[in-house]
Amino acid sequence: MTTPLHGQMMDVPLAVSSLLAHASRYFGTTEIVSKRVEGDVHRYTYRDCERRAKQLAQALIALGVEAGDRIGTLAWNGYRHLETYYGTTGFGAVCHTINPRLFPEQIAYIVNHADDSYVLFDLTFAPLVDMLAPQCPNVRGWIAMTDEAHRPRMSTDASCYEALLTEMDGQFDWPLIDERSASNLCYTSGTTGNPKGALYSHRSTVLHALGASLPDAMGLSARDSVLPVVPMFHVNAWGIPHGAPLTGAKLVFPGKDLDGKSLYELMEAERVTCSAGVPTVWLGLLNYVREAGVRFSSLERTIIGGSACPPAMLRMFKDDYGVEAIHGWGMTEMSPLGTLARLNWEQMQRSPDKQRRLLEKQGHVIYGVDMKIVGDGGRELPWDGVAFGDLHVRGPWVIDRYFRHDTSPLVDGWFATGDVATIDRDGFMRITDRSKDLIKSGCEWISSIDIENVAVAHPAVAEAACIACAHPKWTERPLLVVVKRPDSDVTQDELRGFYEGKVAKWWIPDDVVFVDELPHTATGKLHKLKLREQFGDYILPSARKVQNCPLTDEVTAGSGSTPVPE
Ligand code: AMP
């Protein structure tokens, strides 16, 4: 065997601390602006942030925290949370962001499973901490992220963040870190079974930050003022707290106020150019700007993901407000970014209609992610935009296994996402459903996402969810559950009629039910499992007819030639 000729380049580890160190040294005066839980707006610079992150590292080390220990956070998007991102990982501890919107029992499970040694929390979550503390005996201390003046009254013996920092001088050098050691821990929302932990490494986090910042991904730059609406407790706010210091972008944190008015006012005040969040948040923002009759003066683009973005929303951003809305897809197990819908030069020469149809999909992979769709027996399916199958991914920021699970979830080296998708000739991926949300009508599949997208394009519909209902003849048929806009009196028949010509006839929901609100998961996605439980006994009118008269054939089944309308 011949010995390989090694490159002669510096072996500098990809450490998370290098991102903030870079921003502090080269973008030292760039601002980080935060709306605080205390009620005011706080502003300082990357240089200040690094100094305080070092003070936090010193304080945690003084408390006995060691490399590899997990430090939990229950916090909104804000500067202290950012300091915790770096003040923990910077000396080798693991930053474990916890979603406070989960049920307290799930949070206690997560804290215990992660074996968090300390948990830092925002004032909002003091009552939650009082509930959690007795259930989490291994936590050595709870730290309120505030100053002495705002220290909350609690039954838990919590220490004060600012008091801890004041005792430290910030004279601290980030130690050399093995890039393969763990940096961050995030748990999946766990709508089925217990939440599972994705343990990122320094290497995967830095590579993801680089990939996510690329021009055809989020395209972050030192010319940007970025407002992540996506919470820092949900998959590291899609990597923005890492990508912003890497590129030198100004950061604007909204704190706990995520309603349309608060977001709009902060965007205008801080000249925000780029934002990112889930569709439900944008619904609130768009409703506000429409009702208030205001326009965006600085916002150039927004990344929309976490659940399928209705095409009507993309159109509204672009056509009514001149804001580029970029549809993206990813998951906790992928750090999270996988694809974004952005066109290449050749695609931009196509007709506006063809461009629009590409942009409605979940998009093209960014470098670092490889994807394929597979059918029965793991057979790879063609990229024709029609064939749909299980979406598998792999890459340096995709998990290899779950934290503290012995068995690998990989199939032939690929991670099975649980999503069902098509990929077209352009390499644009379109999610047709979560595999468990697809509706099986006869021997054909119906995409619940497509049915919902049509429904929310109707002016009288505020939100819609489509689920499968048992059917004696077709196995399952779609039921549409709708929240109407205030003052609308749309009927079931009108809504069903709205589908004519938009989807195959046999995709039209058999029934429409109006409700006051739909259940959501802790990450703002439609909670289909809960909805299915809620409508578990529901009998569709078409099912009743079949039961009464087996020969009645109300539903025209699909032929199988066009499983998914493009
Ligand atoms: P999470 O791990 O909580 O971020 O959830 C990841 C899951 O959210 C994915 O596997 C998808 O099912 C769903 N998801 C994320 N982005 C999108 C999107 N743009 N369209 C449809 N589903 C999405």
TrEMBL record:
InterPro entries: AMP-bd_C, AMP-bd_C_sf, AMP-binding_CS, AMP-dep_synth/lig_dom, ANL_N_sf. Keywords: Fatty acid metabolism, Ligase, Lipid metabolism. Residues 451-525 form the AMP-binding enzyme C-terminal domain. One of its GO terms (molecular function) is ligase activity. Residues 24-403 form the AMP-dependent synthetase/ligase domain. Gene3D superfamilies: 3.30.300.30, N-terminal domain of ligase-like (3.40.50.12780). Belongs to the ATP-dependent AMP-binding enzyme family. This is 3-(Methylthio)propionyl-CoA ligase. It comes from Paraburkholderia dipogonis.
